[in-house]
Design goal:
By secondary structure, the protein is α+β, with helices and mostly antiparallel strands. The chain is 66% helix and 18% strand. A hairpin with a 2-residue loop joins strand 2 and strand 3.
Length: 99
């Protein structure tokens, strides 16, 4: 299916195929996500005891979200540090700006 720049792709997550409609330019992100999730699934399967694949997928989801939250906090701290520096730099460059 192709509509407004969207395509239907099939990816496999934990050996389960799923068809999804995505923006054509985002297909590579979904393919990369498929690889990351499946690699994580194998890693978690080696480390954890589980009864159902959903147990592992849930642990992977929590792990990804925690990492995302940590990254977001780091970016926020970075922004809080760099914005004042950029404002100082702008003030300095404004002083040297010759009209």
């Amino acid at each position: 299916m192709e509509d407004n720049g969207k395509i239907t792709i099939t990816i496999q997550v934990a050996q389960r195929p799923m068809s999804i409609v995505v923006k054509k330019e985002w297909e590579h992100y979904f393919r990369e996500a498929e690889k990351v999730i499946n690699d994580s699934f194998l890693d978690f399967a080696k480390k954890w005891t589980y009864k159902d694949q959903i147990d592992l997928l849930s642990k992977i989801l929590v792990d990804f979200v925690v990492k995302w939250i940590v990254d977001e906090e780091r970016l926020k701290e970075y922004d809080e540090e760099i914005v004042p520096m950029m404002e100082s730099l702008k003030t300095l460059t404004d002083k040297f700006n010759i009209d």
